Automatic annotation (TrEMBL):
It comes from Isobaculum melis. One of its GO terms (molecular function) is ATP binding. Keywords: ATP-binding, Nucleotide-binding, Transport. This is ABC-2 type transport system ATP-binding protein. Gene3D superfamilies: P-loop containing nucleotide triphosphate hydrolases. Residues 5-234 form the ABC transporter domain.
Length: 241
C-alpha cells in the first residue's frame, strides 16, 4: 500500500522533558489510523508536528513523499485537521465559516459543494445559524466539516467525538469510514472512546511515555488478542514504561 505519511525517528522536547521519543510509523492511502494513549502521553504534540503546527527536534516527517518542511505550505490544501479547540468567527454562520476557510486554503468550491459537506455532518438545516448559537456538538460537527470540506488527502482529527451524542458519534464514524473507502482519504484520529474508534479503524498506534508501543493493523491485533483486545490496549496505555 502506498504511504501518504511517513514518520521516522521523530523526537520532541519541551525544556528538559522528551515528550516524543524517536517515533516511527507510516499511514497508507485510504487508511483510518487510531492514535491511542492516556492524557499526557504526547498524542496532541505528535499530531501538531504532523500538521506542521509544532517543530520537531529531530527525525523526519514525509507528507506526500516530501519532507514536511518542503511540503508545506504548498501541499496545505491536501491536509485537513481539527486539533484541540478549533476557533471560529462566532458572528458568522456555519456556511460562511466554511466559505471563509476555503478562501484561506485557496480552494474553490461551489455553494452546493459546501452544502453537501454540511449535509454530510448533519448541519445543513443549521447552515445559516450564527456560530454563537451553535451547541458544543454542532461546533464539533462543523470542525469535522472544516477539516474535510476542501477534500484533502490526509485528515488529522483530535478527539472528533467530543460533545457528540451517541447518534452523532455513529454518524461521524460512518462518514469517516466512507470517506476513507470511497474517496481514498487517510485519517489519523486521537480519541478516548476506544470502542467507537476501533469500529472504524484499520490501524492502531499506541503512545506510552512518548514511545510508540503498538503499531499494528487492527486485523492483526484482533487475530492476536481476540475478545481481550480492548483490555490489552488499556493495559498497554497504563502499564508499559
Amino acid at each position: 500500500m502506498e504511504n501518504i505519511l511517513k514518520v521516522m525517528n521523530v523526537s520532541k522536547n519541551y525544556t528538559q522533558t522528551e515528550v516524543i521519543k524517536k517515533a516511527s510509523f507510516s499511514i497508507g492511502v485510504g487508511t483510518v489510523c487510531t492514535l491511542l494513549g492516556k492524557n499526557g502521553s504526547g498524542k496532541t504534540t505528535l499530531l501538531k508536528m504532523i500538521a506542521g503546527l509544532n517543530k520537531k527536534n529531530s527525525g523526519d516527517i514525509q507528507f506526500l513523499g516530501r519532507a514536511i518542511e518542503e511540503a508545506f505550505p504548498a501541499s496545505l490544501s491536501q491536509l485537513g485537521f481539527s486539533i484541540e479547540n478549533p476557533k471560529y468567527y462566532e458572528h458568522l454562520s456555519g456556511q460562511e465559516n466554511l466559505a471563509l476557510h476555503l478562501t484561506y486554503m485557496g480552494v474553490k468550491k461551489t455553494e452546493s459543494e459546501v452544502k453537501e459537506v454540511l449535509d454530510q455532518v448533519g448541519l445543513l438545516a443549521k447552515k445559516d445559524m450564527r456560530l454563537k448559537e451553535y451547541s458544543l456538538g454542532m461546533k464539533q460537527r462543523l470542525a469535522i466539516a472544516r477539516a474535510i470540506v476542501h477534500q484533502p488527502k490526509f485528515v488529522i482529527l483530535d478527539e472528533p467525538f467530543n460533545g457528540l451524542d451517541p447518534k452523532g458519534i455513529d454518524d461521524i464514524g460512518v462518514l469517516i469510514k466512507e470517506l476513507a473507502q470511497k474517496a481514498g482519504m487517510s485519517f489519523i484520529i486521537s480519541s478516548h472512546l476506544l470502542h467507537q474508534t476501533l469500529e472504524i479503524s484499520d490501524k492502531v498506534l499506541l503512545l506510552n511515555g512518548g514511545n510508540i508501543v503498538v503499531d499494528e493493523a487492527l486485523t492483526q491485533l484482533k487475530a492476536t488478542y481476540g475478545e481481550q483486545l480492548r483490555e490489552k490496549l488499556i493495559y498497554l496505555m497504563e502499564d508499559v514504561k
